[in-house]
Structure formats: structure tokens, C-alpha cells
């Protein structure tokens, strides 16, 4: 009989436990030493918690929020960067889910909190309104504005589509010498009155009077070789006329401001557009009629500081009575609303974007009332 067979089972277990304790073996018998356990505990304690993880996503979230909040402070002196940012300002919201994914991947509570407190709050404050349908039924007049495009391959179809839109006032921009007669013929079936100056015109169901051009102080600068010849040849790209309504006279402006370009060396070139915006703001400021509607392709969004002189006097129908951002350009995949319906002295009841025509812009429409 061996020694182990002579000892009771309990005594054998005690001996085994004492042996493990003496050799530093843990409960599993495979060598978790007390020193190892201490090191593991210290490592866990030193590991950053959820509020200390992800400092980079948190910092980027704060910077994104400040960029949107303080966009007006971004200088325009260097390549027009301020106007470029403001043109696409709503799209900065797409960076929020990217940063959220980074925060979740890092399991960073601080980054998530920074996102919610700064960029999400700022974006909703700036653009939460368009997410709500502000439109109301009714309206005394329906107005439509459309840059029909100098290179439109089907101007006849565009004219017929616009004539069927139900608009009482129809403003067209970028009319060429070749298409003017066509638009006159097609639209005369619905609109007995019209006024055209250069490349812009207004077709109306109601009588027009006192039509005159508005000098936009055009200077094509570096675009002289790229603008359509018919557009460049026209000095008149804006007009002012009076519409006789049952409620009294309504002053209507139709404008096509200068183009903008992202130039390889000059940055975001807006000089011609900005001069036109200033001239248009001065014309509206001198307007004696309290009821004013401005229709046209302004080649910029109302967030752009270049239009402060205009937006301080007129209000966007889309902002007041639209649903969504109402992006109008480019027609294939709209990313910005550069075609505007702006009003003063009348109320916008609804605002919307019409279906694509042969132009690279979408038509914009609004119902207004007294």
C-alpha cells in the first residue's frame, strides 16, 4: 500500500493546496502568481475610461460645430473660402454620422457627448426648420422662376412644361437670341403679357407696366472665355416691372447674377456675382412699392454673406413656407439652392421645386398671398 492510499482524502487535498500555495500556483494550478494579478489590476486601472477615450473625434466634433456656428467669421479674402463654405453649409451635417461612427468605434462617451452638444445642436438650429413642412394651403398668386439654360437641348418642351405649371407669373433666365422667339410663341398661349430684357424675361397672366432694366455692373473677368456667347453679349441680366393685381401693384424683379467658379489659382471666384448682388440690393432699397417679389438665378444660396444686402430686405419663400432645402442645382443631383423666390410685403404660403426640364437647373415655385 502506497503512502497516498494510507492518507485520508481530505488530508490529500490539504497537502495539494499547501503545495500550490508554496509554489505560487493559483486556483487553476497553472501559474497565476500574485504579482501577475497585481500587474493586471494596475493595467486595468490605468486603461482610459469611456470619458477619456477618443480625444481626436471629440476635438473634431467641437471644431465642426464651431465651423458651422462661426461660418460668417471665415475670411473671404483668401480665395473666397467663406462664401464657398456658406454655399454648401447644410452638407457639413454629413460629417456628423462619420464622427459618430468614429466615436462608437473608440467607445468614447466624450466624443458622443461633444457631437450632441456642439455640431448636432448647431446644425439643427441652422437647418432644423427645413425638415418641418411649413407650407400652408392657398395663395393669391403662383410664381415660378427657371434658368432655362443656354444649352438646353429641348427648349420647346421646357416651355410647354412651364406653361402647364399653373404659374401666374413665370420668370425665365438665360434666354438666348435663338430661343427667345420660341419661348414667346409657346408661352403666349397661356400668358398674354410678357417683358424681356436681354437674357431675362417675365411672362404674366396679369398686365405689366413700367418695365426697365436693372444694371448689375457685369464683369465676366476670368469667365470671359467660358460663358455662353449669347449670355455674355447681353448687358441686361435683370429687369424690374410692375404687375397689376386685384390687390394693387406688385413690383417684380427678375435677375440672373454673374456666375461663380472654383479657380485653380484664384480660389472661389465670385467678383461679378457679388457686384450684381450689391447692385440688386440697392435697387430693392430704392423700390417705392412695399410689395416686392424677386425671382431669379442668383448663383448663390441665401446663407452666403454676399446676399446680406438682399436678405436683410427680402425673405426666402423656401425658408418661410417650404419643406426641405429646395435644392435646385445641378438638376441631375441638386446640392444647392441658387434659384430663389424672395418676397417683401406679401406672405409666402408654400414653396416647392418643379420637375426637371432640359435645363441644368430645376424650376422653383411659390404661392404668395396678401
UniProtKB/TrEMBL annotation:
Boundaries of every Endonuclease/exonuclease/phosphatase domain copy: 145-361
Span list, region Disordered: 1-33
MF (Gene Ontology): endonuclease activity
UniProt xrefs under InterPro entries: Endo/exonu/phosph_ase_sf, Endo/exonuclease/phosphatase
Keyword set, alphabetical order: Endonuclease, Hydrolase, Membrane, Nuclease, Transmembrane, Transmembrane helix
DNA damage found in the keyword field: no
Transmembrane feature ranges: 54-72, 84-105, 111-132
Pfam family name, one: Exo_endo_phos
Domain of life: Bacteria
SUPFAM superfamilies attached to this UniProt entry: DNase I-like
Protein name, as recorded: Endonuclease/exonuclease/phosphatase family protein
Organism: Streptomonospora wellingtoniae
Amino acid at each position: 500500500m502506497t503512502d497516498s492510499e494510507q492518507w485520508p482524502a481530505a488530508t490529500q487535498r490539504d497537502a495539494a493546496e499547501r503545495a500550490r500555495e508554496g509554489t505560487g500556483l493559483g486556483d487553476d494550478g497553472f501559474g497565476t502568481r500574485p504579482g501577475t494579478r497585481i500587474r493586471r489590476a494596475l493595467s486595468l486601472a490605468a486603461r482610459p475610461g469611456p470619458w477619456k477615450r477618443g480625444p481626436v473625434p471629440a476635438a473634431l466634433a467641437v471644431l465642426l460645430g464651431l465651423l458651422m456656428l462661426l461660418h460668417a467669421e471665415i475670411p473671404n479674402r483668401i480665395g473666397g473660402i467663406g462664401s464657398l463654405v456658406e454655399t454648401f453649409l447644410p452638407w457639413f451635417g454629413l460629417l456628423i454620422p462619420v464622427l459618430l461612427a468614429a466615436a462608437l468605434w473608440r467607445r468614447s462617451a466624450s466624443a458622443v457627448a461633444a457631437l450632441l452638444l456642439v455640431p448636432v445642436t448647431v446644425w439643427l438650429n441652422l437647418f432644423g426648420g427645413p425638415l418641418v413642412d411649413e407650407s400652408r394651403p392657398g395663395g393669391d398668386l403662383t410664381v415660378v422662376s427657371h434658368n432655362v439654360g443656354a444649352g438646353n437641348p429641348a427648349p420647346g418642351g421646357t416651355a410647354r412644361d412651364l406653361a402647364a405649371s399653373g404659374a401666374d407669373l413665370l420668370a425665365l433666365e438665360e434666354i438666348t437670341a435663338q430661343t427667345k422667339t420660341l419661348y414667346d410663341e409657346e408661352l403666349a398661349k397661356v400668358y398674354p403679357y410678357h417683358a424681356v430684357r436681354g437674357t431675362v424675361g417675365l411672362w404674366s397672366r396679369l398686365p405689366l407696366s413700367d418695365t426697365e432694366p436693372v444694371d448689375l455692373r457685369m464683369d465676366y473677368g476670368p469667365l470671359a472665355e467660358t460663358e455662353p456667347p449669347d449670355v455674355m453679349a447681353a448687358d441686361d441680366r435683370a429687369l424690374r416691372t410692375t404687375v397689376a393685381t386685384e390687390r394693387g401693384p406688385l413690383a417684380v424683379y427678375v435677375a440672373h447674377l454673374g456666375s461663380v467658379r472654383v479657380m485653380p489659382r484664384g480660389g472661389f471666384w465670385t467678383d461679378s456675382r457679388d457686384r450684381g448682388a450689391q447692385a440688386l440690393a440697392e435697387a430693392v432699397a430704392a423700390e417705392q412699392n412695399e410689395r416686392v417679389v424677386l425671382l431669379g438665378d442668383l448663383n448663390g444660396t441665401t446663407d452666403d454673406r454676399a446676399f446680406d444686402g438682399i436678405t436683410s430686405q427680402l425673405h426666402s419663400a423656401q425658408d418661410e413656407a417650404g419643406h426641405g432645402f429646395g435644392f435646385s442645382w445641378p438638376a441631375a443631383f441638386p446640392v444647392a439652392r441658387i434659384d430663389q423666390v424672395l418676397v417683401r410685403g406679401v406672405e409666402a404660403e408654400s414653396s416647392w421645386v418643379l420637375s426637371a426640364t432640359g435645363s441644368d437647373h430645376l424650376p422653383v415655385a411659390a404661392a404668395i398671398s396678401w
